[in-house]
Design goal:
The protein is α/β, with parallel strands linked by helices. Helix content is about 30%, strand content about 20%. The strands form 2 sheets. Strands 5-4-1-6 form a 4-stranded parallel sheet, sandwiched between helices. It has a two-stranded antiparallel sheet with strand order 2-3. β2 and β3 form a beta hairpin. It is globular. It starts with a strand and ends with a helix.
């Protein structure tokens, strides 16, 4: 199964996360030595049922690691547009899969068994 991982969003100066993000993407906020999104990627990479990760919302040159293939789709302007772009990318791959999992980058406590259960 493919997963669409949404990771867009740069907090405004009024957002409490602005300082932690250092003017960058919320998904890249450091949590215990890793970007928040890396914790999510680790869980998705270790999940048995995930084949590919469609990462939507970060620039193409992002230093992230995954045991599964990552296809990066650039930020589309808002969450719904990012989800649409991820779905378009999944459908363009013609894998024959009937389901896709949608996951946000801000759930660093996600575990592989949770992903496989879904």
């Amino acid at each position: 199964m493919d997963v669409i991982l949404t990771a867009g969003g740069i907090p405004s100066q009024k957002d409490p996360l602005h300082t932690a993000a250092r003017g960058g993407y919320k998904a890249m906020i450091d949590i215990n030595g890793k970007p928040m999104i890396q914790w999510v990627l680790n869980a998705l990479s270790s999940a048995a049922k995930i084949e590919r990760i469609i990462l939507v919302g970060l620039p193409p040159v992002t230093d992230l690691n995954s045991a599964k293939p990552i296809i990066i789709v650039e930020e589309q302007g808002d969450l719904l547009s990012n989800i649409r772009a991820g779905c378009h990318e999944v459908s363009s791959q013609h894998t024959g899969e009937e389901h896709v999992l949608l996951v946000a980058a801000d759930i660093p406590l996600l575990e592989p068994h949770m992903v496989d259960w879904m």
